[in-house]
Amino acid sequence: MVASAISAGQALLPVGGGRRADFGNLSERPVTPLRTEKLSGIIEHDADNQTVTLGAGMTLAAAQAFLAPHRQWLPFRPPLGQRNIAELNNSAMLLFPAGGCTVGGMVALGACGPERLAYGAPRDALLGLRFVSGTAKHIKAGGRVIKNVAGYDITRLLAGSAGTLGLLTELTFRVSAVPEVCRVLRASGTLAQCAAAASELLRSRLCPIFVTASPVPNLESGISNLGSASWRESAPWTSCVGFEGFDATVAAQLDGCSAVLSNAGLGEAETLDYPILDGIHAQTYRTLHDAAFVVRADVSLNAVSAMATVLPNPARCLLDFGCGRVTLGFASLSDEEWAALCSAASDAGGHVVAEKAPAEFKQQHDVFAPERPAWNVMRRLKAALDPHGVFAPGRLPGRR
Question: Is the Cβ–Cβ distance between 52 and 63 less than 8 Å?
């Protein structure tokens, strides 16, 4: 298909299972979706050395189901990564459930949740891969051991490239042991109190898996109480701090965390267990992505709470204090509001991406926000590895 596209001057859009096919800008050229669902086999699993090689089209849920009997897992909980178990139609699908993101799509988009604080992003567990290049060659990069790179690390270059440099076909990961318990400590207070607690936790000797905060939802509408300008100072927020590992270790960590939250002025904390695969934020992400616009801002750690208050009324919001990420959901987003978000992120040493937006918005704006110096490097890499411009032309920043 790639060779034919080169000959015909056509463009291809790698989409994995198709769940995030709308990611990126609108393409000026017609594109043909290139799905990888049939590349879904288990190629090799070395349980003793904790590595697994998978077809890029395998769903994350199916990979977790395969690893579970070995008490191993891929320690990632990307937004919209798992399919709700209630959607499965028969018992056979419990072994290799359909739906959810593919591992190739997860790597290509660099998709990860707040647990990146402890486990890293998918690129950090990626040991090697195979991909079809823009010249229709099947290329191997990396290997199946940790020290496997001599020269430029093509593996990490492909991770996060959103399918613009090639089609991932095979991925080798380092897997982790399944934690004995997964527990979260939740407490409510103002945004300032949540931010103060997060700052103290990240400076402490505690080892949280994630440190997040989100507005307390309105019980009637399910949407956050962010309707007035005063919400910045007084609206209630819920701080969530997760710990995973051995039961005794987690219990000791929770005691220390409880003291930090209390000292910051947050209310009485409650402790909850959560499922290992979905984590605690799965429903939050589903609610966020119900919004017409979803904007992700990556900023310096000390600018997270300030970034959340740039606009007067985001309908939904998740603050990731541990990784410097703010995810905002909006029912509408004007040109002025988009410009304000871009400017605030730039001032905070970061950038924004409109992860979800209507086509009308994309016709007028680059979803990757104003141009940055790094884009010149991206274009040069694109020209070198995909000289015919076959792959995902709309996903390259600065090109619509």
Answer: yes
Q: Is 51 helix (H, G, I), strand (E, B) or coil?
A: strand
Written as one letter, the residue type at 98 is A
| 125 & 170 share domain | yes
Domain that holds residue 85: 2-177
How far apart CA 314 and CA 88 sit, in angstroms, is 33
CATH number of the domain residue 42 falls in: 3.30.465.10
Residues 137, 231: one domain? no
Separation CA 260–CA 196 (nearest Å): 9
**How do beta strands 31-35 and 11-16 pair?**
parallel
**Residue 24 region by backbone torsions, left for phi larger than 0, else alpha for psi between -120 and 50, else beta:** left
241-268 pLDDT tens trace: 999 999 999 999 999 999 999 999 999 9
- Helix (H, G, I), strand (E, B), or coil: what is residue 210? strand
Burial code of 104-141, b = ≥16 C-beta within 10 A, e = fewer? bbbbbbebbbbbbbbbebbbebbbbbbbbbbeeeeeeb
